[in-house]
Structures are given as C-alpha cells and as structure tokens.
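Hey, quick one: can you model this chain's 3D structure?
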Amino acid sequence: MTKEQTLAALKNQMDSFYSLQQVIAIIEGIAEPEVKTQLDQDIIDDISGSIERCLDNNNESDLVDVDNIELSLGYNNQIEIDSAAIDVYRIMQHINGILEDYVAKKV
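Sure thing. Here's the predicted structure for all 107 residues.
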C-alpha cells in the first residue's frame, strides 16, 4: 500500500487506541525516501560500449551533416574538404536510444 492509500483507508476507519487524527498525523509525517542512484563503473563501461557500437555500426552516414560540407578544388584538381560539421541532433538520437535501455522504469 502506498502512503496515500494508507491515509485514505485510515480516514474511513473507526478510532482505536490512538485517535484517528493522531494516526493520520503520524503517517503524514513519514518522509518519502530520497531516491538517488549512482552508476558503477561496469554500467558506465556497458553504456559507453553500447554507444560506441551504435555510432560505429553502419551509422557513419548519420554522423556528418552532408548537406553542409564545404569543398574546394585544390592543387592538381583534387577535391578537398574544407569543413564538415557533425550532425549533433542525429548523434544525440542514437545516444538517447541507447540510454533509454538503461533508464529505470517506474513501477
């Protein structure tokens, strides 16, 4: 039973050794535990490896913003890349997809 369910049940019961108001005050005074999680090194290594494999396995074309590559014609008519930006949005989509597997589900 949750704190809210317990309070609702007590509000509908008769008084006993403690008054109903005393019991309700006691339960309302219960502090919800703080939930803090810390990742251990094994989980961090696992997440890091999963992200690396995701970005490495056939996703190279998603990593560079191919619409904004700047090219120039260099010596001996060779095409040179002057700048090529990464596509941060797509990279973060891949990373977020991996991290979703590690997010704790609320029960």
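One thing worth noting: The chain has two domains: 1-34, 41-100.
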